[in-house]
Each structure stands twice: as C-alpha cells, then as structure tokens.
Amino acid sequence: MSSTTIDHAPGHDHDDHAHDHGHPTGWRRWLFATNHKDIGTMYLIFSFTMLLEGGLLALLLRTELFEPGIQFFRPELFNQFTTMHGLIMVFGAIMPAFVGFANWMIPLQIGASDMAFARMNNFSFWLLPVAAILLTTSFFVPGGATAAGWTLYAPLSVQMGPGMDFAIFAVHIMGASSIMGAINIIVTVLNMRAPGMTLMKMPLFCWTWLITAYLLIAVMPVLAGAITMVLTDRHFGTSFFNAAGGGDPVMYQHVFWFFGHPEVYIMILPAFGIVSAIVPTFARKRLFGYASMVYATASIAILSFIVWAHHMFTTGMPVTGQLFFMYATMLIAVPTGVKIFNWVATMWRGSMTFETPMLFAIGFIFVFSMGGFTGLILAVAPIDIQVQDTYYVVAHFHYVLVAGSLFALFGGTYYWLPKWTGVMYDEKLGKIHFWSSLLSFNLTFFPMHFLGLAGMPRRYADYAAQFTDFHQIATIGAFWFGLSQLLFLYVVLKAYSGKGAPAPSNPWGAEDGGLEWTLPSPAPYHSFETPPVVQ
C-alpha cells in the first residue's frame, strides 16, 4: 500500500466527546441503532453467542463419541446435533462475526462517517436473532430439528419433519441479511472513501470485504433457490429431487455446491484481510506485494465458481468432469499460495514482536496452510473417492474454518480491541488464550486425519473399537478448546468494562494501516464528520 499521510480538514474536532451529542441511550440505542459501531458491536455479540451454542452442540457430539456404542443420544438426535452445529457455526457464528468487523472497521479505515445505508444496516442485523430463534426452537417441534446434515441434501431433507421447514426459513432469513449487508459494504467502499483514498490505497481488509460482498450477492440467491426447491418438493407436489417424479437428487448437490464452494471463500477472504492488517504492523514493515494480494483475492473469488463439483467426486460424474474439477481446484491453490508467501515475506527480516494479535496471525498462517495442503490432497479425485465422507474431510475443513476464520477473528479482536474500548486488554491472558486454543485445536482435529485415513465415516454416532483412542484424544481436546474460549470472553469483557491501561490512538505503532489509527481510542460515536484528506 502506498504510504498515506492524513490531513484533517480545518475544524475537525479530535475531542472524544465533541460529537457525542444527541444520540439515543438505553435500549433505544440498540434496537434502533443506525451507528455502524453499535451495529458492529451487536453483530459481534450475536456471533459469539452463536459460537457458544454451536460449540455446546459440538461438545455433545464429542461426549457421545468418547466411547464406542450408543452412550447418551440416539442416532437421530446425534444427527440433529451434527446438522445444527454446522448450520449455526457457518450462518450464525463465522459469517456474522466478519460482518461485525466490516461494520466496525470499514468506515474507520476509509474515512467514511458511517455505512451507506444505516437503516438497512439495522434491519439486516435484526433479521439474524429471528433466524437464530427459528433454528434453536426447531429442536422442540415434533420430530426435532433437521438431521439432513448442514448441506441439507435431498432426498433426506425432503423427508424430514417440520424442523426442516424451520431450518429452510432460518437460512432464507440469514441469506437476506447477508445480501443486504453485502450491498451496504459495496456502496460504502465504492462511494464513501475519503478524498485521495484510491482503491489501491485502501487497507486490504476493505479489499477482501469488497470482493467477499460481490461473492455474497452472487451466491446467496443460489442457496435460496436450492432450499426453495426442497420446500416445494416437501409441500407443493413438485419433483425437483424425486427420481420417481422425474427429478434428480444429484441436481440438489450441483445447485447447493455452486453456492457452497464460494461460501467457503466468503468465510476466509475477510480473514485474509485481517491477517494482512496484523502482520505488517508487528513486523514493522510494509505489506509485501500489496497489488499482488489484491489480484490474488480477486482470482480466488473468480476461480471459486468453477470448482464446486470437487465436493461430488463420488456421485458418478464422467472422468472428464472429474479431471476438470480436479485441475481447477489445484489451480485455486496458486493465488492462495501467493498470499501465504507474501505474509512470510512481510515478516522476513522484520522487527517482529509477538503480541497476541501477531501470535494469532502466525498461528493462522501455520494451521491454515495445513488445512490448505489437505485440501490439495482432497482435490485429487482418486484419493478423494477413498476418504470421501470420512473424518479426513472433517479434519480438513475444521483446519480451514476454525484455525482459519476463527483464529483470524480472535487476532482481529485483540488487534482492534484497544480502538473499540479505549483500554489495552490483558496481554498475559491473551497469550494464554492463544497457546491454549492452538494446542487444544490441534489435539482435537489432528487425530481426525488418522481416523479418516483408517476409514472412520463422519456423522456416525457409533464406531468400531479400533477408533476409540483417537476419538478419546479428540474429545479431550474439544473440551479444552471450548473452555479456552471462556477465557477469551473474560478478556474482552474486562476490556469493555474499562479495566486496563488507557489505549493511545495508535497503540501498536501501525504505520501502514487505514485511517482508524488517526482517531482517538475509543473511537468517538461520530467519526470523520469532516472527511480526512489522504495524500
């Protein structure tokens, strides 16, 4: 990124409370919130709540799997837990968390006074608790929640009880929320940058979110189409996925994964943006290859549309199709590799310090790379056919999504928490949280590679005795990982309650960030009422 100097236009008031006049207080401030910081905070609180719910379901799964045999939950309930864990984590925890970061940071980084559509921003948030209530209450309807897996594959999803309809409506509502959020981000980034901030001067977090927002607008309607077809098959006599009526259940997989694979990048591109903000700051160097990072992000987004059927190598597709999707999937590793090398090159010979955000960023690079390599292995069709639907796949995508998305979210939280709260968080507890999370994560998911290679299928409530040891190790790791996140909650709440050293406006000495470091900490309620000028 070209180095930027900021001139505040005359009359710009830096005083923390100068602009705090007349905004609503109490419950009205949150219910009718139009301020991007308040809405960002609500997204983050909501996503962490859903993370705890989804995590609780995961711990119930691991409790059942501690020993072979059916211990606590009948297989139908186990499958409901599996399905809801996936839906809640993807649509309730990871995606809203990144939207919370976007709401908080994009206006601050580009010098905008707020998001473009403040009321739509409020509406897109308040759809989410409605969807979360629908998902959670589906456990209590006759037949329980949907047990078709988070992918909601037909024909199973066509045969489920009313809990399936709850899930369909919840996903529809969350999709509408995502589309509104994406429109808001695109318009804000394209129209509300400070004078002098060209697109190629924007922080990479803004770039990754701009590209992610286009992905969301492209693929959320596809998901809506897939689940609407399931809904009409269930209740209105259509036969989209019923072979007896001329339909094709494999068509559901094609439509779903045309959404599902770009969705994976929707959950990781903003993480790349956060890591690209943290690494240069703590390496005390400019980000290596800024332009190539932008182009790599765009390449990943474009290529993500032509790899969907690598999830479907076992559906009996012709070998030509297998080869196409195999090579396309390998190709997408190239721009991803560009990013990894650029981060490493940024750290190379830098004056590195290892505060908690940097630890999470380095942990992200290390463990995400492992997830990337298992992804390359799964791209090879003959290998994929062997390990399809085993714990090897579970290990792969948790390395990408937990150590990828989640670690980046933790790193970003520690990085910007002083800007949000005005105080420095407890560094010692932050480091304990990092090491505890890293060790317990690997203890949980690394053994799953061996389970999968040995043939342990995923989504099974029972298993053969030879898998016991690895399952027990994974369960112990899962409980350790879950408890570690309570420490994170404590650190954040402690900072929000104002306990800690006051944070300066640029606590990390970031030379190459966005405009957020020119504001006092905590960021005032109304920031950049007079646009700064970037030179």
Give a description of the structure.
This protein has a single domain, classed as Up-down Bundle (Cytochrome C Oxidase, Chain A). 65% of the residues lie in helices and 1% in strands. The chain has 17 helices and two strands. The chain has helices at 26-31, 36-64, 75-110, 118-137, 156-159, 163-191, 204-235, 249-266, 269-283, 290-303, 319-331, 333-347, 356-379, 381-387, 391-421, 427-453, 468-496; strands at residues 6-7, 533-534. The longest helix is centred in the first third of the chain and has 36 residues, at 75-110. Residues 8-20 have low confidence and may be disordered. Its EC number is 7.1.1.9. Pathway: Energy metabolism; oxidative phosphorylation. Belongs to the heme-copper respiratory oxidase family. Residues 1-20 are annotated as: Disordered.
What labels would you give this structure?
globular; single chain; Cytochrome C Oxidase, Chain A; 535 residues; oxidoreductase activity; 65% helix; translocase; mainly alpha; two-stranded antiparallel ribbon; copper
